[in-house]
Amino acid sequence: MSKTITIDGNEIPFAEGQTIMDAAMAAKIYIPHLCHNPEFKPHGSCKLCTVRANGRAVSACTMPAGEGMVIENKTGELDDERRAIVQMLFVEGNHLCPTCEKSGNCQLQAVAYCLDMMSPHYNHFYPPREVDASHPDVFLDRNRCILCELCVRASRDVDGKNVFGLSGRGIGSRLVVNSASGRLGDSTFAVTDRAAQVCPTGAILIKRQGFSVPIGSRIYDHKPICQVETEGKSGGEHE
Amino acid sequence: MTFELETAANPENLKRVVIEPVTRVEGHGKVTLLLDEDNRIHQARFHIVEFRGFEKFIQGRPYTEVPVLVQRLCGICPVSHHLAASKAMDMIVGSTLTPSADKLRRLMHFGQILQSHALHFFYLASPDLLFGFDSDVATRNVVGVAAAYPEIARQGVALRKYGQEVIRLTAGKRIHGTGAIPGGVNKNLSVAERDFLLKDIGQIIAWSQGAVDLIKKVYCERPEFHNGFGYFRSSFMSLVRPDGALDFYHGGLRARDEHEQDIFDHLDYGHYWDYVHEEVKPWSYMKFPFIRSRGREEGWYRVGPLARVNNCDFIPTPLAEAERKIFKAFDSGSATQATLAYHWTRMIEMLHCAEGIQELLHDDDLLGDDLVSKGERALRGVGVIEAPRGLLIHHYRINEDEQIVRANLIVSTTHNNQAMNEAVRQVALQYLDGKQLTEGLLNHIEVAIRAFDPCLSCATHAVGKMPLEVELLDAEGKEIDRLVRNASGACGA
Fold first, then answer.
1. Which of A79, A80, A38, A86 has the alpha carbon at shortest distance from A62?
2. Which CATH class is domain B54-418?
3. Does residue A126 contact residue A96 with C-beta atoms inside 8 Å?
4. Which residue of B57, B186, B369, B372 is the best one to mutate when testing the A interface, meaning the one whose CB has the most A CBs within 10 A?
5. pTM value?
6. Per CATH, is A3-74 categorized as 3.10.20.740?
7. Which ipTM value was assigned to this complex?
8. Contact yes or no for A214 and B187 at CB 8 A
């Protein structure tokens, strides 16, 4: 008989070694997340997937599932905290959805809708962030970077290039490029790299694509992210 | 052509009357009048009090983003900015549009002008025209129109809605869509979408014809008054098709002087800067364009419906063309320079849009799949289009990394800046000079401005050396400090 956990009253099975997130995804239960992508090693940095496991706050993407674990996921208190995290992400960067070509395909935007975020709530930082257009095929816009490190992991673990990394600490953290000049155009990065495809926001954009996908055909135009994710399609990726 | 009321010789002893905000226009503006103790007018200015920064803050952005970004200049005519920027980006990607892309964009543009003209005439202008310029202010608004003329109000709402549906089906959203992209469009029409629009187009044409009949009736009941209100003569500038026809989407530049003589014709707008310059004045955020060959004093001109209908040789749809001929022949052509004739010509254009939409909806290219074309890359693009309010110029330069490095936008309302000031001064002299001012009289000034259907939020997009005045006031409103940046960019107290 398989082992089980309970998420919001629903008993679901899990296999040894699976995290709470793995088990939830397999059971088509949506736990909000941004830095997690099942293709890569869990990171546990965005904290959006925080759930209460046996009463203790843990990151669902890194916490191994345990037999009989009772997990609270979709609660008003947790969603309030998740909404506050997303609001902080919005004000810490420069996320201008109305003019961003990732709009409708953006996980950050989709999660904000999913959590009923109606305003940024906090004062915008409007930080000066560097835009790097030096690569012939990819535009790196740090204004939209949420430091999820998916590109770091993809470049390191899949592409074997280590093009990206994080530098600085705390609010001074920033995405850096592994090249002599620090510019993407001088790195070994290629548009065919997996790292070019995994950004959940509009920080890494393929040039000359623009708004080629019409409104109505974008990933989250008709279904919220909780539905898209549980139906098995990974949102926010360039198809 | 006169600038005599632009600046009073001795303003210090004059009293100041301010109309702020000017109502029933898009955006925010004000009018200031300086009067002496006998209420004689010594200065009249139309100021734009909004401040925008689009030309500056799009620098560094990828060119693909621009057609969607710059349309946020406006919530009324975003399609015009969207299409003008897209035309500029077509040059940058070396595109010659496919027939489907060209026609889908034209359809979107017809929808945009239809809804904008309907909005202006029924919501903003009709209260003045139906009730009188100095009628009861409590009912001189669209709610009053709906109460007194419910069928007219209903048609106005329905016309606007139809135009917005055309935009939704071509751009994805009624406001701020994404339909046009560099080199083409991102969607075609499905058969169901085309049939949805075809279903009502006959009614839309009939209502548009009714709107022309209404303004014609109102105008012709008091021809001398309407011809003479805020009257002045000026040059006109617009796009025309190679055969001289009215064309909102593409064409060459035609400018005609106040005697209807060509200043230039069929000019390639790709070098507009050889013919049009802009002047900055210290008392307005809005620039003052002028035709270079005629100089700053004589070179100003009008754009928009009156300019287009006057300048074109014909309108390429039958009902609108018949109305154009009636307008041009009216009272031996006396309406062709009249400020209030903007309303008349605007409705003729709305009729043309409705006819144009019908014509396009029967063209199977709208259903085609060949939507994007690209060719040799360029580093500069100029897109010019006829927006609802007139000529709209978008000019961009990009670098090798495909980022915007420079942008210049000359917006319809900016072209009309001097003309609107001239209309304000004429009305001030005609109706206010020496009189005890009343709300109704002050509304005459607003009526003159409204005729141009100005979009003030569009028109103040510039940043940099624009004049700026900052006042620091204490709690009692007393000035503590003051900082002024003049037109040259220099700051001082």
1. A38
2. mainly alpha
3. no
4. B186
5. 0.91
6. yes
7. 0.91
8. yes
